[in-house]
Specification:
single chain; mainly beta; Lipocalin; eight-stranded antiparallel barrel; 10 strands; Lipid/polyisoprenoid-bd_YceI; Polyisoprenoid-binding protein; TTHA0802/YceI-like_sf
Length: 185
């Protein structure tokens, strides 16, 4: 039996409860226009946080996520170190980004709009994420009940005081989050 066959596809069948981010299977990716030539991407890893979820009362969903900014990884190690520096993310002063949910509104059978507050680089602004339910079930490898979501959103980096190389490097940042959460018994 394949691992995919273990996952339910009906969001209403997800077990209610409190979940922890599975840091080994969760990532936050970003993409930004690079000098008008290409969309350059990278990822953050080692994400932590909690999700309180009840599919019968989605409006009561709570999500709190912490992203260690120094975990940034792009195709260039030299750029990774530059992005950690004071001209960009300044990870010595601003080690983490956090997202805290405010509200969730179901928009389809397996989709929702999640509104929250993103704190990045010492500045907090509202952020809206479009969330898509991927699946849920018992992970056949570790036997933990797991639920997964994909989310996308956009932000302006200048709103967070990250203005290096504007406008050569785009201001609009596209986020893509692949999140796996393990139920806590």
């Amino acid at each position: 039996m394949s691992a995919h066959a273990q996952a339910t596809v009906a969001p209403r069948d997800v077990r209610a409860g409190t979940y922890q981010v599975d840091p080994a299977h969760t990532e936050a990716g970003f993409s930004v226009l690079h000098m008008g030539f290409s969309h350059y991407s990278g990822v953050f890893s080692n994400i932590s946080g909690t999700l309180t979820l009840d599919p019968r009362h989605l409006s009561a969903t709570n999500l709190h996520v912490i992203i260690p900014i120094a975990s940034i990884q792009t195709p260039s190690m030299k750029l990774d170190n530059e992005l950690r520096g004071p001209e960009w993310f300044d990870t010595a002063r601003f080690a983490d980004a956090t997202f805290v949910s405010i509200s969730l509104r179901q928009t389809g059978a397996d989709a929702a709009t999640l509104n929250g507050l993103l704190s990045l680089h010492g500045i907090t602004h509202p952020l809206t994420l479009q969330v898509h339910f991927v699946g849920a079930g018992t992970n056949p490898l570790n036997r933990k009940y797991t639920v997964g979501f994909d989310a996308t959103g956009t932000l302006r980096r200048s709103d967070y005081g990250i203005t290096a190389y504007l406008p050569m490097i785009g201001d609009t940042v596209t986020l893509r989050i692949a999140g796996a959460f393990e139920r806590q018994d």
